[in-house]
Design a protein that fits this description.
- The protein has two domains: 133 residues, 3-Layer(aba) Sandwich (Rossmann fold); 61 residues, Arc Repressor Mutant, subunit A (Orthogonal Bundle).
- It has ten helices and four strands; from the N terminus they run ααβαβαβαβααααα.
- Strands 1-2-3-4 form a four-stranded parallel beta sheet.
- 24% of the residues are buried.
- Helix 8 packs across helix 9.
- It has 204 residues and is of the alpha/beta class.
Length: 204
């Protein structure tokens, strides 16, 4: 709410008319339907889950309105939908800025105007992370880590992998930890990292 009110004041001060200011993704889509704005500015995280609702809504809006300019603000790079957003329409009229890297108010306002005019403004850190995502995810693994991952994909346990490679189970555990780190698979309650690593191996 503080960010939203701050943006309203900022944009009004620079001569822009804010036709709607909403607090969740569904209200955002409804406001666009009602007002047909020149540009949408949205945060990635919105209620109710504060995950990627705003970015997901932006992708949905661009699917139905490919020429609608959208500027997304975020504290981090949400790679799941960021690439979809940047690929939407013909790739114009879209922006993705990291909030803590916008150094000056004028920089933000200039980005807003450029996106509204059909330009594309993307933080260099966003570009870097998306390019890294599109490379072979296994390229950072050592030959031994690739070997361990291949055995995991065959359904082998740590003990079976240790016997196959003639190493200790502790060594296998260390290799698996390295694999998960290099594949950007941090601990999470809702996912099984070993399975995700196998899926990355199979895709590659």
């Amino acid at each position: 709410m503080l960010l939203r009110d701050g943006l309203i004041g900022l944009l009004t001060r620079y001569g822009h008319e804010v036709v709607a200011a909403v607090g969740d993704a569904e209200a955002l889509v409804a406001a666009v339907d009602e007002h047909g704005p020149d540009i949408v500015v949205t945060d990635v995280r919105m209620p109710p889950g504060f995950q990627d609702e705003g970015l997901h809504a932006a992708v949905r809006l661009r699917e139905t309105r490919p020429t609608l300019p959208v500027l997304v603000l975020s504290q981090y790079v949400q790679r799941r939908y960021a690439a979809d957003l940047l690929d939407s329409g013909d790739g114009t009229g879209v922006g993705y800025l990291l909030k803590d890297r916008v150094g000056q108010v004028e920089q933000f306002v200039d980005a807003l105007i450029e996106v509204a005019d059909g330009g594309t403004v993307v933080d260099p850190e966003v570009v870097r992370q998306l390019l890294r995502r599109r490379r072979d995810p296994l390229e950072r693994l050592t030959p031994r880590e690739r070997e361990v991952l291949a055995l995991i994909a065959e359904g082998r346990s740590n003990g079976a992998i240790a016997r196959e490679l003639v190493v200790s189970e502790a060594a296998v555990g260390k290799h698996i930890s390295g694999i998960l780190t290099k594949l950007d698979l941090p601990p999470a309650d809702e996912t099984h990292r070993r399975v995700l690593a196998v899926l990355a191996f199979l895709r590659a």
